[in-house]
Amino acid sequence: MKKKLKILFTSSEVHPFAKTGGLADVCSFLPLALKRLGHEVRVVMPKYKSISKSFQPVRVDLKVPVGDKIKKAFLFRSRLQNKVPIYFIENNSYFGRPQLYGNQHGDFPDNAERFIFFSRAILEFCESTGFCPDIIHCNDWQTGLVPLYLKTHYQDNPFFSSTRSVFSIHNLGYQGNFLKENLALANIPDKLFTPDGVEFYGRFSFLKAGLLFADILTTVSPSYCREIQTKENGFLMDGVLRLRSKDLHGVLNGVDETEWNPKNDSLIPSRYSAQDLSGKQKCRKELIQRFALDSHSNQPIVCMITRLSQQKGIELIAGGLNEILNKGINLIILGSGEQRLEDHFRKMNAKFPGQFAAHIGFDEKLAHQILAGSDLFLMPSLYEPCGLTQMYALKYGTVPLVRSVGGLRDSIKKYNAKNSQGTGFKFSQNTLKDLLLELARALSVYKNKSSWKSLMINGMETNNSWDNAAKKYLRLYLKALQ
Ligand code: ADP
Predict the structure, then answer these.
(1) Where do the domains of the chain lie?
(2) Which residues 6+ apart lie within 8 Å of 27 measured at CB?
(3) In ligand 1, which atom is closest to the CA atom of 364?
């Protein structure tokens, strides 16, 4: 008989409440897909300042040990897409700030304490509300201490005797490595601060805690799963990952078609589908107007929607902008992130008016509009755990041109002109030369309208549903419970 599982999803960001990247999308859409498969799912996240005050308060106050103090937390409740209960943990001294992790001066100096508090609060939440999960699914370093607590402080607590943990790596580049002094705040004994434990080159690593103590580890694509176990791409964590290689699995993320589907997207000027692409032309026209582009129909609009960080291959674009634009394209960038890159692209707006447009900021609605109105989507990442935006691009008939790494390698099939198979363009080396060669290839296919249309349709008809991914996670949950 199929067992109905109780699953608690924990994350520092969940769409649509707080988002800095793909993590938020996964931690919203995967719980929804698990619920569709018939399981009982709840989500827990911090209550940041930006999160509505009008949510229903839950009449349970949590008492959370942090060092030798007891900190209070209050609970609020809402639902994801009206379906999955989501709980917000409120403690304004930790989370009552407009940003999630830091401000213009850098990371918040108390990030270790904030997420020690959050991790313990998650376990206290379970007990206080009587929700006894079969699986606690933790995501990234912010929740890395939860698996450790389950195997130490809560090990003899009968409430958690059949609870198992799954820890997902969304980006190994972010590890939550802090000063050793934070061990005391986490109430973790010094004996765990060893190279076999949570010590990582002299620091206390929250990510490593998750990697060592979770029952099952996952990451967000099969290729990234292999890459992070190598010295070149392991961010010094490859040894730990190889040690746990038997328990580490790559599951490709999906696309939530209630929110990312041009057929029913209320954020774009005109809806369209693979059967009727006329609405995409309208979206394109509006985009040309919005960014005052001098566009000709034989000249594709290329877009990027991205964090402005080195990981995303932005240096290649910043350094090679002249050569890229010389190919006769329009380029729109929607991005936010590193100050120097934001400043650089703002300057380029003035240098290439009509051909290049950078919108600096994080704007969900604009992301949908740019994706719908563009022809090509560019993602030249140095490394990419999964990447969601290229999968959204497929759905919107905006052909991806990506560097063949991690999830980009797994989610995009190289176009083959001979049999019209494939969904996009891929290049291997992190060089401007390779990028330009692939761009030239894309432009020659773009000239042939019927080839381009079949390429668009191949992408639009690709099935990257979350339901497939959720089934794979379920198998892993059952493995954790064996
Ligand atoms: P990462 O998580 O590494 O940032 P992903 O491609 O997995 O990259 O996910 C990025 C998510 O954030 C996508 O939903 C994308 O649309 C969104 N996004 C990135 N930058 C912006 C921005 N400037 N404005 C709006 N949405 C953005």
Answers:
(1) 6-254+466-481, 278-460
(2) 9, 11, 13, 14, 15, 43, 45, 139
(3) 25
